[in-house]
Amino acid sequence: MLSKIIIHKVGNKINQESLVLSQEEYQPDEGMKEMLEDFFLKSFKSDEQFQFYSDTYLVNNPIFSSASEIFEDLSKFIYESENIAEHLYGITENPRVQAGELFICYFEGEEIAGEKIDSIGIFKTENKAPFLKIFPEGDAFDIEKDYGISLTKLDKGCIIYNSFKESGYAVSIIDNNKNGDMYYWFEDFLKVKQRDNEYFHTQETLSVYKEFITKQLPQEFETTKADQAEFLNKSIEFFKEKEQFDYDEFTKEVLQDDNVIESFSNFKSDYEQEMQVSISEDFAINESAVKKQSRGFKSIIKLDKNFSIYVHGDRKMIEQGSDEKGKYYRLYFDEEK
Predict the structure, then answer these.
(1) Which end of the chain is more exposed for a tag (fewer CB within 10 A), N or C?
(2) What's the per-residue H, E or C state across 263-286?
(3) Which one is predicted more confidently, 108 or 181?
(4) In this model, does residue 299 exceed pLDDT 70?
């Protein structure tokens, strides 16, 4: 439940725009409070979470530090909200970053199983949308055009949950308006990295597997596009059907061949070293991560500029060959739809 809110105006210092700080909290009525709470929270649909980090000590991360102070002493809410706004204003180095309103909110969590987790929301609105105001004018009506904040989509936001403080809190983030600067919100302002949880391990396992199938496998083994499509389809089916990921079970069921399994193991190790990540081989599969990653697992065989074959199922229903007319694919099916 939204219990506190303060609004600051953060300009772009490079463009010589000002920073305007409120000296007191905004006091919305119940109707406005419900509308704002819905506007701020409805955009956070993903299970993907992040955590604050610092190149030295966590306390040196300005947003982590301010959030910690607020969670420990709510009377510091206004003071720390000003520090957050000043930090955002100070890190702006790109003239394309838009000025906007910065909302700092405090949410009281609902008690679940005897535990209540409060959170802090930091939201920035940048784009202004046109809207019409219609009002009576004599015996008719007049229309006036104005600009304001659209309630359909939040430009930028983060929710800091009062949990996992020792590792940098659990943080949900969105950035729907990057202004040509992809580092401004995630890195320069918040300084976060993805949390090491089920979502992360599900996402990374699927990512490294897809890269192996599409790039490494054809270099080491005689593999057709249809073979690659089958590998991709089988992997997604595995993740959709299972609740728990086990590396040995996955490789034996999906890759099957010992030489291919060994190649994938080496590829995974190189990937972890290059990306400086450690991917677990035993974790609970996150459905949200599977759904997001599966969008990129479309098994399509593109043939010149004439045809594309979408492969969804049995590899045995596709044959490949060549004759006097050229290369061909032969497809078998039970019924035409």
Answers:
(1) C
(2) HHHHHHHHHHHHHCCCCCCEEECC
(3) 108
(4) no
DSSP three-state, residue 182: coil
Smallest CA-to-CA distance from 116 within 107, 126, 128 is with 107
Confirm whether pTM is higher than 0.90: no
Q: Reduce the DSSP state of residue 11 to 3 states and report it.
A: coil
What's the CA gap between 233 and 241, in Å, rounded? 12
**Among candidate residues 202, 229, 219, the one with its CA nearest the CA of residue 301:** 229
138: confidence class by pLDDT, cuts 50, 70, 90? confident
Which pair of tokens denotes residue 296? 């990129």
CA dist list (Å): 217 to 78, 134, 237, 278, 321: 56, 63, 20, 22, 21
Q: What is the dihedral of CA 179, 184, 185, 189, to 10 degrees?
A: -150
Within a 10 A sphere around the Cβ of 218, how many other Cβ atoms? 14
Asked if residue 180 lies in contact with residue 94, where contact means CB atoms within 8 angstroms, the answer is: yes
User: Which of 79-94 are b and which e, b meaning 16 or more Cβ less than 10 Å from the residue's Cβ?
Assistant: ebbbebbebbbebbee
Q: What is the residue type of 194?
A: Q
Nearest-angstrom CA–CA distance, 17 and 118? 34
- How confident is the model over 68-122, as pLDDT tens digits? 999 999 999 999 999 999 999 999 989 999 999 999 999 998 766 678 899 999 9
For residue 192, pLDDT beyond 80: yes
Q: What is the phi-psi region of residue 102: left when phi exceeds 0, alpha when psi lies from -120 to 50, beta otherwise?
A: beta
- Pull the structure tokens for residue 81: 């909200």
Sign of CA dihedral 252, 255, 261, 266: negative
Question: Where do runs of H (alpha helix) occur along 91-221?
Answer: 198-211, 217-220
Rounded distance between C-alpha atoms, residue 335 and residue 337, angstroms: 6
Q: Are 240 and 202 in contact (CB under 8 A)?
A: no
Tell me the three-class secondary structure of 124-136, residue by residue: EECCCEEEEEEEE
| DSSP symbol at 255 | I
- Inter-axis angle of helices 287-294 and 198-211, nearest 10: 30
